[in-house]
Specification:
By secondary structure, this protein is an alpha/beta fold. It contains nine helices and 13 strands. The longest helix has 25 residues. It binds zinc ion. Zinc ion binds next to loops.
Length: 308
């Protein structure tokens, strides 16, 4: 399998064997600032080069899995992804044309759902039928496992990051156009941005805010508490609606470990009355989840085509 994940700041790519073993991995810059066409050209070039590498290494490419952020139209294979400057871009058609081999199926899927699928198949959500993968990174989106299936809602489901939890004057404008979204307070990017706005100096991402938090910095403590408060609200809402038995938190913020997880557990526990209480754990596949999910989806396609 050739697998490429366009979520996150760099493109994560790999060659993955049928048993899930990663034979080759690399990352490449995503030329976001150069526009949507440049991003697409880089993706096509990457897929073609990785296919050539697989062949040169003596492997046969059985399928290609590409995962992207944003909204994918499953029928047309077009993608709307603001941070890749794609607005209805025909990604699947371009991939088919670039690969030029009808025997190699191409699977296009959502990055967070692919990550959730990988966590479900071989990570923190193994063995669950109702669970949630929630990566807290540049943005926040959810992969929702409901009654044993990952819910995609025709490509639109799982946008928990864009539900409103902040009302009134303190609500900040979100990239999606709404005000006070979860993502404006609790994503890794928001934590860095909100600290910088209050302290009047730029910080090196949420990681530096966590270091400041550990050192007793008051602004860091406030920004962190704000994030925890809305995350607890979001997890209680999700738990009330969909009754997960396990929630796996991923993305950059989970690097904080128990500093993040224990207050979430305590906060959710304190709020629940009748609802089934979920376990709250760290996701285990890290940055590789999306890429691995792309490969798993691609392999599923090959297997189902062989059976039909
Ligand atoms: Zn939003």
């Amino acid at each position: 399998m050739v697998a490429v994940d366009l979520g996150g700041t760099r493109m994560k790519c790999g060659l993955v064997a049928a048993d899930g073993a990663v034979l080759h991995r690399e990352t490449r810059p995503t030329p976001r600032t150069a526009g949507g066409r440049a991003v697409l050209d880089t993706l096509l070039e990457t897929v073609v080069e990785l296919s050539q590498k697989a062949t040169a290494d003596g492997h046969r490419v059985r399928a290609i899995g590409v995962v992207v952020p944003g909204i994918i139209d499953a029928e047309t294979g077009t993608v709307v992804a603001e941070n890749l400057a794609w607005s209805g871009t025909p990604v699947r058609a371009e991939l088919i044309a670039a690969v030029g081999d009808d025997d190699v199926p191409i699977v296009l899927a959502h990055d967070v759902r692919a990550g959730g699928y990988a966590e479900l198949r071989q990570g923190a959500l193994t063995g669950t039928t109702n669970s949630l993968f929630l990566p807290l990174g540049t943005g926040i989106a959810a992969a929702m496992v409901v009654d044993g299936r990952l819910v995609s809602g025709d490509g639109y489901a799982g946008e928990l990051g864009h539900t409103r939890f902040i009302h009134g004057e303190t609500a900040e404008l979100c990239a999606c156009g709404q005000w006070g979204c979860l993502e404006t307070v609790a994503s890794a990017a928001a934590i860095a941005r909100r600290y910088a706005a209050r302290a009047g100096r730029v910080v090196d991402g949420s990681r530096e805010v966590m270091e400041l938090l550990a050192a007793g910095d008051e602004i860091a403590a406030q920004v962190w508490q704000d994030a925890l408060t809305v995350l607890i609200e979001a997890l209680v809402l999700y738990t009330t609606l969909l009754a997960p038995t396990r929630i796996a938190i991923g993305g950059g913020l989970v690097g904080a470990g128990e500093t993040l997880l224990q207050p979430l557990r305590d906060g959710v526990h304190a709020r629940l009355t009748f609802q089934r209480e979920p376990e709250i754990v760290a996701a285990v596949l890290g940055e590789e989840a999306g890429c691995l999910g792309a490969a798993l989806y691609a392999w599923d396609r090959v297997t189902s085509e062989e059976q039909s």
